Amino acid sequence: MRVGFVVGEFPLLSETFVADQMAGLLERGFEVEVVCDRMKGDDRIDRQSEPMATLLARTRHWWSWAAGIREFVRRLPPGLRYKVSTALDMVFARRLNRCDVIVAHFGQNGERAAALKKWKFLKPPVITIFHGADVAIPSRQAVLATQYAGLIKHGTLNLTVNDFFRGLLLEAGMSPASTTVHHMGIDAREISYRWESWEGTPLIVTTVCRLVEKKGVEFALRALAALAASHPQIDWRYDIIGDGPLRMDLERLAAELGLTGRVTFLGSLPHMEVKRRLRAAHLFLLPSITASNGDMEGIPVALMEAMAAGLIAVSTVHSGIPELIQDLETGFLAPERDVSTLAGKLAWVAEHPKECEAVALAARRKVEEEFNADMLNERFAQIVTQLAALGSANESTRHISFAKVLTGSLPADTAPQ
């Protein structure tokens, strides 16, 4: 069976979940084709090792030899740009029509495929996976239904990385029978669990993220400043790993809050150094917020990795994060932008290392049982296989039948081998 992935830029280090899903299908005997707008030359990605070498060998620009005019098309007025882009998509749809199923990562790529379905230039069923900004920003701008009108009518299956986003799509008019949650996950086998108490030692707090508004690092700094004022006896330090447009502002804020000697901005670090820093840390802090433009997290992979490694996760009631972290059971949550409550959570963790060990163990189990990449890739492979079996049905019949697939009432052996 051949699966065609439609993505924007490939490969991206910030979207390893896309390559991991492709690799999961390769491991299960699927053929994978990748169609993208831009092939990224990221020196941090090992392009020679498997499965990346195989994936790159099967990756092509969507517009093939016409890819060079993309910048010209991008500068056209919106209406004309859409018509020219869609026409070029139609011309080069042949490669995708050799596939049994199309998987579009991010809503805009799914909508692009849906336009081809509308004009009957694309034959295979289309799975669209929504991750974050592709749902949250148009929802904030009240254009979700308009932006994805094609998917509402012609998309076969819409997967969201959390239940919160599924609710937004349902409100926009997508069919409940064709919209469900499919989490992204991690390979916990590659992350060794290690519990180390901070009793009698400084509490080491760490954040690993891009320094953008939705990560909430501003509120991490403000909460730690409040902790320092209310609990001067607690010894802690805070390492921030990552770079981004807000770095200078955050460094300035740390100085204004009097945290210069206790907060270190480490910038972007090599992967092995990030792993070493995480092994030395006790608490992973990510107080995510809804950005001013409406951008939101899905469920951050960084939280999953920290929980798998044995760190205590402290985050916020934001988007899909409560699907990963149950307050006081698998981690600690505060309302968005609530500095006082966040500082209180940090104080409790700092003063109760013995009680936190049970929380860390529960967090590891949560990741292993519900955010296990191998298990999720197996489920995705079954979805793809069964969707291909239903590919020839008309839309209404397919939606009814696929609802049975998602609830497990349609046997897996209905699919062709």
UniProtKB/TrEMBL annotation:
Which Pfam family is one of those matched by this entry? Glycos_transf_1
Q: Does the keyword Glycosyltransferase apply?
A: yes
Q: Does the keyword Ribonucleoprotein apply?
A: no
E.C. no: 2.4.-.-
Domain annotation Glycosyl transferase family: ranges: 199-365
User: How would you classify this enzyme at the top EC level?
Assistant: transferase
Q: Can you tell me where the transmembrane regions are?
A: none
Q: Which InterPro entries does this UniProt record tie to the protein?
A: Glyco_trans_1, Glyco_trans_4-like_N, Glycosyltransferase_grp1
A GO molecular function for this record?
A: glycosyltransferase activity
Stated name of the protein: Glycosyltransferase
Species name: Mesorhizobium abyssinicae
